[in-house]
Structure formats: C-alpha cells, structure tokens
Amino acid sequence: MDSKAAPISISQVRQDVASIFLAKVFNWMAVGLGITGLVAYATAATGLAVTISRSPLFIVLAIGTIGLVFFLSARINKIQAGTASALFVGYAVLNGLFFSTLFLRYTGSSIAGTFLITAGMFGAMAVYGLVTKRDLSGWGSFLFMGLIGIIIAMVVNIFLQSPAVYWVTSMIGVLIFTGLTAYDVQKIKRMGEEGIMSQGQEAIVKGSIMGALALYLDFINLFLMLLRFFGGSRN
C-alpha cells in the first residue's frame, strides 16, 4: 500500500480557507437575524410596538439603523474589532425594535411563512454564488443602479400612492436582492481566497462583520419585498 499522502493543491487550500471565512460570516449573519427576530417578537408581544408606531421613536429608529450602516461601512478600518462587533449587535437590536411594527400590520403566521420563503430563496442564491464558475462582479454596478432606482421610485410613490408602482417596485426589488445575494456571497468567498484569513484576528473579525452586514441586508430587504406579496394583513 502506498503510504504517501496525496498532494494538496494551492487551489484546494484557498477553497478551504475561504470556507472557514464564509462560516464566520454566516455565523455572524445568523446571530444578527436571530437577535432581530427575537427583539421584534418580544417587542410586539409586550405591546411596545404600538408605542413605537405612534411616537417619534419610529423615525428615530429608522434614521438610527440607516446611520449605523453608513457609520460601520465608513469607519470599519478605523475602529476596533470589538467595537465593530458591538455596533453590529446594536444594529440588529435597533432593527428588531423597528420591525416589531410589522406585527401590527401583518399576521404572525404570514410573517413566519414569508420568512421561510425568504430563507429558501436566499439559500438557493447563496449556493449559486458559491458554486458558479461565472464571474458575478459585473452584476455589481447593474444591481446598484437598480437599487437606487427602486429607492427613488418608492420615495416618489409615497406621494403618488400608485398601486402599480408599488407592485412593480416590489417585484423588481425581489429580483435585485436575490441577485445581490449571489453577488455578495461570491465576493465574500473571494475575500477568503485572497488572504484575509492571514491578516490577523482584527482583520478577520472586521471582515466577517462587514460580510455578515451585507448578507443580513440582502436577507432583510428580500424578506420585506416578499412580505408585500405574501403578508396577510390584520385589517
């Protein structure tokens, strides 16, 4: 019997390292989603969601969550890994408080059902981003322009109140965030392959936080778009 071990290729090592980094990213994403879900449910169950929806706190939370995303993105290279982790957890908590108001508009069963649909679609596109040999980097600018377009359309529709615009932006939003899921997963995989795991614990933690934030946003926004189609109204 040949006792020599089969040589390990450089590409295999890179894939293994990328898998470790991806696991860290998905673990952080799962933590974020879990915190948001628990906070949202607890806030709705205690009746605090009603207070939030009827007070300036709703606007404060909306601005706070957006502000934290921009702050993390802009300052990630200048803050400590522990600070980045705490800000990510804080962001998940704020989102939980903000999204607790969804329980006032939609039934709990339709929210749960939509979450499962979102998880299935997200999972399928994440797998595609991992296994495809196609370079998805060209999707980035196209998806970003589409995202800006639907944001503008949604803001304009606040004043127009057009059902047609509402449903079109919802459908396009689903397509954009499913595409972003595959794009971001492939991008994160490449970060792992290109050596982030050799840059020290600080870089690993901060890189995994930013990767988790991107996927968290893809999941949450896909969920919100799908909820427009599958959410059962309480009214």
Automatic annotation (TrEMBL):
PANTHER family per UniProt: BAX INHIBITOR-RELATED, PROTEIN LIFEGUARD 4
UniProt entry keywords in alphabetical sequence: Membrane, Transmembrane, Transmembrane helix
Subcellular location: Membrane
Family designation: Belongs to the BI1 family.
Pfam family, one: Bax1-I
Spans through the membrane: 21-44, 56-74, 86-104, 110-131, 138-159, 165-183, 204-230
Topology of this chain in the membrane: Multi-pass membrane protein
Descriptive protein name: Modulator of FtsH protease
A cellular-component GO term for this protein: plasma membrane
